[in-house]
Every structure is written in C-alpha cells, then in structure tokens.
C-alpha cells in the first residue's frame, strides 16, 4: 500500500519526462526489453549511456577550446554522441546534437559553441531527472511492464 | 575475441534449425557501448544467439576463428578502428555472410553505400525490435542464392554475361561505350537479380562458340558467301542442334565486325589482334586451334601461339592485316588466357591436358555459355589488343582478349580466363564474365554464398591451369609463383578475398609474387600493365579483379602454371568476382584490389596500378562480374603499334602511360564492385 503513492509518483515522473519531450518512444522500447532476467535493464543502460557520453562531452569541450575548430572532429564526436542519445530515447539531447552538427557542417564556430552550451544544458537536465527517476524506481521495487504514457 | 561475449555455444548446424529463426547466431559490432548492449538485449529477446564486440578487428578475428559460427553480422557504419563498409567487404569476401549495416546516419548516400558494398540491409538507429525480428530473412535469402549459385555451377553470371555479350556485340565502337555500358549495366543488374533468383538455366542458354563450332560457322558463311550469309541459312548449314538463329545472328554480327576490322585495320599497325574489335574471332577461332597447339606446346606457347593465332586469324579473316601482333603479346595473351579460361569446372580439363587446344577446349566446353558470341572461346586470345572498340565478346574462356590496346573494346569476354587483356582498351568493356574471375569477386560474398568462390576457384584454376598448361612455368611470364595461391588465405575465396582485404596477409605475399612475377615475366608485364592501365582508368577495372582472382586460382589450381595464372587469374578473377558475386560486390573489387595492392607496395609498376585501381574502384556492391569496362588504353599506345616488335608488356607499359581513363564499369554479373576501398 505504501508503495502505491510511490508508484504513482513514479508514474507521474515518467509521464512528465515524456510530456516535456525529454524522452521518446525509444525509451519505451528499452523498458519493454526489461524483464525478470534483467530487472534493471533500463537503468543500467542509461547509466552506461551517461558514463560513455560524458567522455564524448569532454572530448568535444576540448575540441572546442582549440582554435580554430576542427569541425570534422567535432562532427565525428557529435555523431557518436547522437547515436547513443538516440538509442536511449533522449529526445531533446538528440535535437541539440543535430543542431550542433549542422553548425559544424556549415563551419559556423559560434553556432557550434552556442549549440554545445544548449546541449550540455539539456544533457544535464536529463541526467538529473533520470537519476531521480531511477532512484525512486529502486525504492518502489520492481515495476510491472512500463505502460505507454499515451 | 577479447571483447566478444558469446552468448552460447555456436550452433554449427548447416541447415536451418527447426526452431528457426530462434538460435540464429548473430554477431553485432558497434563501438557505442550503449547501442551495443541494447542491441544485444533486443536480439536475445528475439531468441537469437548474440555475440557482441565493439571493434571491427575483433569482429573479424572472431569470424575467422569461427568460420561457421555465425549466421549474420550486424555492424555499425562509423567505427574508430575500421570503417564499417570495409568490414562489410571483408566479411563478404572472407566469410560470405549476410551483413546488416546500421547507423544513426540516414542520409541517402550512406544508405546507398551500404547497398553498393553489399550489405543485405541497412538499419537506421535507433534500431527497434521489429527491425531485428526479421533479420533472419537475410540468412535464408543468402543461402538460397548460394545454393542457386551452386546449381548453376557458379555460372550465374554466365547467363548475365551471355546476355551482355549479345548486347556487347551490338556495340561496335567505343563511341557506344557509354551507351553500352549503361545498358549493360542495366542488363547486368537485371541479370544479376535474375541470376540470383532464377537459375541461369532460365536465361537464354549460352552458346559456347567453340573452335569447332566457329569453324563450322565460318565454313557455312564462306559457303554462302559473306554477303549472302544470313543467320537462317547459316544455321541450316551448320546443322547444330540446340543452336538458335539468334545465336548465329549475334555471332555473325560479331564476325562481320571482326572482318571489317581486319580489313580496316591494316593501316594501323594492328596486328590482327587488334583489328577485330568486336572481334568475332572467326579467324581467331581457327587460329585458336593452332594456337592452342602452340600453347600446348608448352610454355612457349604463348608467344608462339599467339603468333600462330594471329597468323591464323589474320590469314583467315582478311589476310589484310598481318598479324603483327607481336609475338610477345601473344605470349601474354596466352598466359592470360589461361586464367581466362574460365572454366569453372571444366577447366580442369584444360589444365591437365596440354593439348594444343587446351585453350579452346577449355573454353568452349567450360566456357560459360555466355560465350556465345564471338569470341569464340578460342582461347580468346582476343588479341584485340590494339583493336579499337573491339567488342570482343569473347566468350572465350581463355579470353586472352588481348584487347589490350583496343579502344572501346567491349570484350564481353565471358571468358573465364578473362585475361581480357583489355588493359589497353579504352572503355573496354570486358564483360568478362570470366568464371574464373569470379572467384576473386567472391569477396563480395555478400551475396553469393561461397559458391561463387568455389566455383570460380576451380574455374580459375582450371582455366588458368588449362591455359597455362601449355605455358610452362618456364615461360618467363609465368613467373608468378603459385605461391600466391598458397599465400592466399583460404577463406573460401580463392584469392580474392585475401588479397583484397586490407590487411590481408596474403597481400604481402602477393605483392611479392606479383612484383617478382611481373618483372620476370614479360608476358605478365603486359598483362599487368594492361591491368594496371585498366585499373587506372577504370576504377573498376575488372582486370584488377581478375588479377585478384588469379591469385586465387593459383591456389586452387595448383597446377597453375605459374604466375601467369596468377596474374591472369587475378585479372580474370577480378572481373569475375565482381560480376559473379552479385551482391558480393566487394569480392571482385576487393580481390582485385588486394591483389593489386599487393603489387603496389612492391612493384612500383604495374602492380601498383592495378592495386591502386582496385582500391579505387568504385565498385558497388553488386559487383557484377561482368567485366565490363576495361581500362581504356590509350589507343595511341595500343599495342598495335608495338605489337610486332615489342613485347606486349612494353606496349602495355607504354599504354599505361598514355592510357586514358576508361570508364570501366565493373559490371560483374551481379557484383558490382563499388568503392572497393582497400
């Protein structure tokens, strides 16, 4: 019984993540992969994503410090970053990545810097939210199969 | 396999398990750990057996270690250590497994690249379960096609070639090359798919214009009078069961062109070889008989045979153009021929016998039916070397279509031994459907299951061996040590695969071999030059492919006499492989590339060219074996001029310099080499 409020809260959190556009369908795909054999699959994947992408963010920051920018390199990093982000359904982060790449391709250094800042912001927001979400999820205990927000 | 984690023991079942697709053994390669783990989970959920690895090199190692351990591979496009497309090529060449590419990139050109490189599917990230659930279809499809290939004795491309050849026959000059190419390409494409789906038997049966058959034809024509010779009457006179009016008609057309060339070529220094561009090798056919003997004579054949052939050919055809073809060329031709003899299976016969007509025999019999037209398989020494616009639709198996100097040679040489020395030919569209080739193309196994390779292999070896029989290793030409063959990794692809593969170990060996070979053998040189030239011009030089192939052959054919085979087979193979493997784009191209690349490193000369070309060959995945475009050899340099006096090689070398880029379309049956990026 005490779980119910928590579960309800968890559900609300989850729904808002979707409604606010932080997550998309792909996240649900991950949730559907979660089963008894891998009860924390989604959390593990997300954790892996943040670990790996942090490295990419760092690389990109370093690349953005050098002048002039190596757009190819930046684009390469961002391509990887985008791929990962897409895989977990990080919708906003993915959008910012796309924008960044466009600036890269057109050689717009300022645009790149701006887009990168924006991307980091979204990335940070997502991270915080998901961390909170999973923390609650753990407390709530194993959930049933995720239901689609819509 | 450090980073790979196998999910279970490999099921080495050859046949489809009962619970198929459950248990499908998938290897997934992606440098992104997040994606990798998601894919793994998804695939496991589909009841597949999954092995993941994050590096392409590791993946290759795993695959090599477990040749039959996997059914399908899924790979990301962008990876740090190796380009996904390169991995795709490697796998196609070495293991002939279906490969699915995936990427977050959904740009059309990238997807197209996947197609051309032979990927059986392309998934856009994020990959969903639904997409993965059906990947088993690619496994089945590939197997099915592979069986088909087997049934067709690896002559899948033959059907294509035949058709192509007929088309080739249509074109008579380089001017039409463009059209021809495009149409051929289309045709090839069609053929390709046809081949895959239908057995070649469904295609029009190829007529192998053997020496005897051609002689009959010529006799009939002479009897009727060249002006009055109409296909219908010729057919009646010939009275050959199974021969259709169309066969005769296209052959006649080629023959006419050949005659015209002969008469018109006299001014050029073209030796008889050159003239007949389309070469109907009428004269050659007769000559071939002689040549064969010469060839058979052993080693010396090449030179002598060539001379003989030429003489015969010349004498026969128009007596106008003396067959200046330098003996040297002839030699080369023969050497090439051997490889050309694509005798897939029939080659063996050739090989064993030093019969004079080895070439011919091999050719007609084994020659793929394609050879229908023209090119009588006369050992195809289509010495159309200097022929401009030679359309030697040499179905010759021993296609020594020395169309090297021919411009616009459209040697649709379905020769197995396609030595379509169309090296110098501009726009040589050597549709060398050389069966022997194929093997090289095999790397492209993306499509065809090993079959092509296997098929090709024997062919090549046979063809080569066959042709080589006469040419003893003694000949300088055949310097190529069969080592190559041994060097080559035996992955299933006779040569092609290894050499082509970047990082193929064999590469090194080949190079050396080639280099040495080439140097030593005069004959080779020419062939290589040719190839080089070809390669240069045409990124897709089939020649290259053949080259690659030859290597394979040498392996197989152990008896390959030598080096020539190698080079030739390489050339041939390259061509074939590309074509053959429909879907194995890479194979051919890759193979040839490998071969050449090997050469490059060591040999500054020809090999380099070849390899370079190979690499640069924008072969699309559908490597069509139809060796079509042969590098354009500068007509200026055409052997024609030099044939009489110089070695073919030197001629070739000259040509190399002057060779104009030829648009070679590698239209290997079914395999289009594209971007064989080495």
TrEMBL record, chain A:
Keyword Repeat on entry: no
One GO CC term on file: nucleus
Q: Cite a single GO MF annotation.
A: protein histidine kinase binding
Pfam families per record:
Hpt
The cross-references to InterPro entries, in alphabetical order and at most eight, read: AHP1-5/YPD1 (IPR045871), HPT_dom_sf (IPR036641), Sig_transdc_His_kin_Hpt_dom (IPR008207)
Q: Where is the HPt domain?
A: 38-133
Q: State any GO BP term from the record.
A: phosphorelay signal transduction system
Q: Sorted alphabetically, which keywords does the UniProt record give?
A: Cytokinin signaling pathway, Phosphoprotein, Two-component regulatory system
Q: What is its main location?
A: cytoplasm
Origin: domain of life: Eukaryota
The chain residues annotated with the modification Phosphohistidine are 79
Q: Does the keyword Cell membrane apply?
A: no
- Record's subcellular location: Cytoplasm, Cytosol; Nucleus
| Physiological role | Functions as a two-component phosphorelay mediators between cytokinin sensor histidine kinases and response regulators (B-type ARRs). Plays an important role in propagating cytokinin signal transduction.
Written domain comment of the UniProt record:
Histidine-containing phosphotransfer domain (HPt) contains an active histidine that mediates the phosphotransfer.
- In its UniProt entry, what is this protein called? Histidine-containing phosphotransfer protein
From TrEMBL, chain B:
Q: Name one GO molecular function term.
A: DNA-binding transcription factor activity
Query: 4-aspartylphosphate (modified residue): where?
Result: 76
Pfam families on file:
Myb_DNA-binding, Response_reg
Q: Which SMART domains match?
A: REC (SM00448)
All residue ranges annotated as the Response regulatory domain in the record? 25-140
A GO cellular component term found in this entry reads:
nucleus
Q: Which InterPro entries match?
A: ARR-like, CheY-like_superfamily, Homeodomain-like_sf, Myb_dom, Myb_dom_plants, Response_reg_B-typ_pln, SANT/Myb, Sig_transdc_resp-reg_receiver
Ranges of Polar residues composition bias in the record = 171-181
GO annotations under biological process?
cytokinin-activated signaling pathway; phosphorelay signal transduction system
Q: PROSITE patterns, alphabetically?
A: HTH_MYB, RESPONSE_REGULATORY
Q: Looking at the record's lineage, which domain of life comes first?
A: Eukaryota
The record, for Gene3D superfamilies, names: 3.40.50.2300, Homeodomain-like
Keyword Transcription regulation in record: yes
Record keyword Iron present: no
Q: Which SUPFAM superfamilies match?
A: CheY-like, Homeodomain-like
List, as start-end ranges, the regions of compositional bias called Basic and acidic residues.
158-167
- Main location group: nucleus
Q: Where is this region: Disordered?
A: 151-201
Q: Which NCBIfam families match?
A: myb_SHAQKYF (TIGR01557)
- Quote the PANTHER family the UniProt record gives: TWO-COMPONENT RESPONSE REGULATOR, TWO-COMPONENT RESPONSE REGULATOR ARR2
The family annotation for this protein states: Belongs to the ARR family. Type-B subfamily.
Q: What name does the UniProt record give this protein? A: Two-component response regulator
UniProt lineage: Eukaryota, Viridiplantae, Streptophyta, Embryophyta, Tracheophyta
